[in-house]
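Notebook, p. 212. Picked up where the previous page left off. The plan for this session was modest: take the two constructs that came back from the sequencing core last week, fold each one, and keep the raw output in the notebook itself so nobody has to go hunting through shared drives later. Recording the first one now, exactly as returned: residue sequence, then the structure token string.
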Amino acid sequence: MAPSTPTRSEHDVLVIGGGVAGLTLALHVAETRRVTLVRPASDDQGASRWAQGGIAAVLSPQDDFEAHVADTLVAGDGLCDERAVRFTVEQGPAAIEWLLSLGVPFTRDDSPNASYPYHLTREGGHGARRIIHAEDATGRAVLDTLKAHVQAHPAITIRDDLVAIGLLADAEKHCRGALCLDERSQPLALQASDTVLATGGASGVYRHTTSPHPASGEGMIMAAELGAELMNLEFQQFHPTCLYDPDGPPFLISEAVRGEGGRLYSTDGRRFMLALDERAELAPRDIVARAIDAEMQRTDSPHVWLDVTHLGEAAIRHHFPTIHSHCLSRGLDITRQPIPVVPAAHYSCGGIATDLDGSSSVPHLYAIGEVACTGLHGANRMASNSLLECLVYARSCAAKLALSHAPAMAPLPAGGVGGRKVDAQRIQQWRKEMRDIMSRHVAIVRRDAGLDAAASELSELSREVEAVLASAAPSAALASLWHAVRLARLTVLAARQRRESRGLHFNPDCQQHLSPQPSRLHLDDLSHPA
């Protein structure tokens, strides 16, 4: 881009992203260091807010760590890092206690035979009730509570007027903060001693998602630009049950609906899960999503039905007040009618490869939450382990940063941004094209020929976008698109290298298991794909 020198400012710990992971980290780090939190208003509509189901943790006396570990390993289909699984599970109860101490309004269990003060539900893949929740809007309750504490903390500065478009590096290739744009698209270099990415996943590279403002892998590519290793990008989870309403915004129908007894039917009235898996509707998400996809193709229907009417109106209103209310607002009474549902891109199991303290392969750069890949999820994330991961790794990363000695701010190379503005409609069209390619060829079921076509089509799209970058003025939309296109290309490369069907990556051309090894990629792999 044409040069113009950005304004610079210095910071101690810079956190990019204000969902559950970013807010949790900020609160813990602020006990020992000063924090600058780049948290655009759109973070309130990101993945954290739409996490309806809850947080998985061993809380009941009838449950134990070994059972939670075993369930997670099964869901991960042979690709979990058992060390990460055990670390996460064992840290879970303390993380929940911390949230309770902040006042998160989890739903209580007032029944006389309750073994734990709060209601625990069960979701797909779990062998026990271990999901603590705040009715059916857990993400919103946790996010709002954390945000209130962050806003009140004297050691945390919130910048809601900035969007990060890249990371800064010194001569030794250590991360030294981020390049941001303000509301007028003016560049600002936030130099920092330590930088933490909590920017979310990459479901936004697909057409249908469960979030109105999904991330598109921006943080992953920003880290990769500095040399960070990316891992397991091919494992993109599709939530089996998103409300089917082509004319309305995305809305997730929580896994807990099936956990409490919801039944799936094809549009011709067949309860199809019974014949496919002994766990029926409580099978892991990849199995359920593929089954729904197959039924939609068999019946040539754009959706299937999720029915809870047999639970009764009182139980539905009690367990799912948010879902009930939202569906009513869109003309659907779920106490009397089945819910039309369709799979939608939901969660990225892959991301920036990190240690158990959030450290990436780039010094002074950390990643937590969905943007990171710790090895916890393997080839498929189990329900409600995501918010658990956000909490556990935010806390472990904060402990690492508390012991870190802030280095002297090294001089950064001079540089700048500027140039001609790119038409917003053109950027939107490019993004639509990318999402269509990914949804057509790299979604729930992938085939060799489709992956080859996606690689070719995305390569051509990448060349088109790159051709305008050198002379383009900076904009958040253009930066996000450029990050997303490259993340999409790396996802296709990972899927082509994986080939075998495992977990969320299902390729009918190679259904057998071959090698339970994580995939590892760097940005320069796009220059010489296998």
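Okay, moving on. Second construct, recorded in the same format:
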Amino acid sequence: MAALAAGNFLTKLFGSKNERVLKRLYPVVDAVNTLEPKYSAMSDADLAAQTPLLKSRYQQGESLEDLLPDAFAVVREASWRTLEMRHFDMQILGGIVLHQGNIAEMKTGEGKTLVATLAIYLNALTGKGAHVVTVNDYLARRDAEWMGKIYRFLGMSVGNIVHGMNDQERKEGYACDITYGTNNEFGFDYLRDNMKFDKESLVQRELHFAIVDEVDSILIDEARTPLIISGPAEKSTHLYYQVNSIVPHLKPEEHYTVDEKAKSVTLTEAGVAMAEQQLQVENLYDPKNIELLHHVNQALKAHALFTRDVDYIIKDNQVIIVDEFTGRLMPGRRYSEGLHQALEAKENVKIENENQTLATITFQNFFRMYDKLSGMTGTADTEAAEFKKIYDLDVVIIPTNEPMIREDYPDAIYMTKKEKYDAAIEEIIELNRVGRPVLVGTVSIDVSEYLSDLLKKRGVAHNVLNAKNHEAEAEIIANAGQKGVVTISTNMAGRGTDIVLGDGVVELGGLHILGTERHESRRIDNQLRGRSGRQGDPGSSRFYLSLEDDLLRIFGGERISGIMNRMGMNEGEPIEHKMISRAIENAQRKVEAHNFDIRKQLLDFDDVMNQQREVIYRQRQQALSDDSLRPVILEMIEEKAEQIAWTYAEEKTPPADWDLKTLSDAVFRQFNFKIDLSAGRLEGLDADVLARRIADEAKAAYQEKEKMLPEEEFRHLERIVMLQTVDSLWKDHLLSMDHLKEGIGLRSYAQQDPLMVYKREAFAMFQEMIDRIKEETLKILFRIQIAPSAEVDDLVQPEEQEMSFSHGSGEAAAKKPHKRQAAKVGRNDPCPCGSGKKYKKCCGK
């Protein structure tokens, strides 16, 4: 207690850390203000001419910090002339924070979209490109067009990257000085670029500077779900139906237990016996039944943990995921590892084939690749520790331009959900009667529809904004502040769109926020509250809760229930007490800490994968950019020659006693020629001399192969073969890494650290894959038969492969065919796999 008192005293004396940071920045704001008369006196042409002047100063060695006051003052003046919007001082402050690579926390309605223009323009002066990352295509288009007027006035090019664009359109978008787009599109383009077969088709430039809008949503909420590009893996769907049919025979508690906190389902011994009986297998845990066991676990999850119209809906005979954070539908996105198919079997809709991962990355690792990253949101302070630890981003809270006068009432807590909803409806009706607009926040689609039905019965006109009609969300949310309007909205639908109060609403008390349940994260609750009280407007908020709500039931219901029972609560009577609200906040803190631990652990494991991905992608980029891979191929030849020599030429054994046949076969398997190991050629041989002889003969054979095509075409062939080999083995490696990660937790039972074991085994697997890449590349190059020149053009014609873009564990983007290029082999040519058979009778069947 004494330490706390001392801390409070020091804060009063010296100010909080946030206040000290802002104090250092105010002189920069003054410098920008001082320049305002200079630029406001310029003609449009003179103002626009400042961009090349600022670029020139940068190229001559001035830092962006030196250019900041001029650049910000230029943008402010251009904004006034094009949009009639002038950055106020707090927005200038926010722009400085963003330029410095921090997160600016600014309340809803403080004009974050305009703030971004300052830092984006300044950093775009480098000519390396600057990105603004938004949460959906609508905002990317809107902001690129709206804010683009400022940039275009100042002579900068503006592009945007949205779903459905072709590669050429994307390339043009990224080539612009300033590019708006969604987190998904930026991430998937990075992965796609690392699957391309020529550098001209790459769309992205280097990742220089990015401002992430709604940074908490993208870097925290979506951090647990990696972006995945996958291709179809042929598997029968019969097993899903078979396993689904046995789940109704399994009873909760008797056959399986559910852990709602960990969101997991576990079979009991009786459950294992019942499953074995139903599936007619002797031992479900026999290694040969491991796939069957996986299907049983996923089917159990689908039935016990996933609820229709909460986690997903059925639309057009498909299972469509509902984003738990925004309440939006995510068509085309699929849960991974067979869970989506298990849900399709549960709902008796058509089961789509599983996909195999071709490329993957988490948002955490993607955004950490930018040279400089910053972000903005209305709610980041509660996650400040995570932003610092994971991304090395400091959160700076920007004061509001006008004082915040919204009144946040204590939570009203009832015994049952029915009492809670009845009370909420009465408050909505009362406020609607006097004309105050009300925004009702719900955590799921079914609750929004339940409340809508109750209001219909009471004759109250209202709008429902949930995943089923998100197309109209911007319009609905923009009108939510008009007199007498009632809007029911799931969670955070409509983020990025301001609610402006209509005529006469200020006098009535402004917009009232009514929350029908607390979210696991305080930040999400604060986002809902933040819809009201913008720019000094009046407003109010209240959350209606019940002891039956998941958060209270799972994380603190007994304690709160005990307090309510001791107070002798009657049916329909709420309790409003700050002690109860604090208990709920403590429950939320526990969940937030638990979720942070999960994200941190996932990142620790993904960091291993990320290091490997960087090595592979670097290899691919080198293969695309180098004029010739010949030096790399010759180095591979020497390395494989040494491996063969040291494997079969025993150090202390005379050459005549070596296993010459096996040695000769190994050389043939790798290089497709027979080495002369007759008696006269063995004298003076040791492993080193043998390695040089194999390498020299292999190089000579390769030189002959090179003569069969013009040099440029042969170099192109080398590139295609190497890239194909890398992609094929990398895809298999991703699958192996998934399997390794799945079972690694069990190592803790053997007193081993799962992460250390994972790192060690993953490294060994990676080394093995690198060796296989070299081996397979050489095998194909030494065996490939060169087609007649008329067919050479066909050699690298792209083959179309269906790909889908998704978030792992469930949140993802739509399916769309993309072309991948593959080297063609003639039907009568030797098979590139090295079997010695003709292609048509081997892999080309």
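Notes on construct two before I forget. The two ends are 78 Å apart (CA to CA).
Flagging for discussion at group meeting.
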